[in-house]
Amino acid sequence: MDKHEAKPLWECGECGEIHDDEDGARECCMPRVYEMYGCPVCDSVHDDEDAALKCCGPQGIIRCPSCARDYSQAAINHWAVVVAGHCNTCNPFFSVADQFSIEDLYLERSPYGDQSLLR
Q: Are 77 and 67 in contact (CB under 8 A)?
């Protein structure tokens, strides 16, 4: 390169750092990707695989953290614990939004959820 020619440089669009090559500028502040794990039962997201597997317990059993009762996916209380963090046996009060979410999850994912009730 001649000293009378301008040297091409590239600026990172995120942090403004100047790079000698275009690839360096593109890769400078690339978005970070984090690996997460989803519970196979309720699809809630966890940071590690063990937490995802323990979320709803073995074979889809979940324990209410308030009263320690166990519920299978076939019970609407299972989905109450997933959504609201408690079952309706120990605390029968839910927000309207939580109640709708609980009922929707039960109908969608429970092995006994009856879609014909919606027709």
A: no
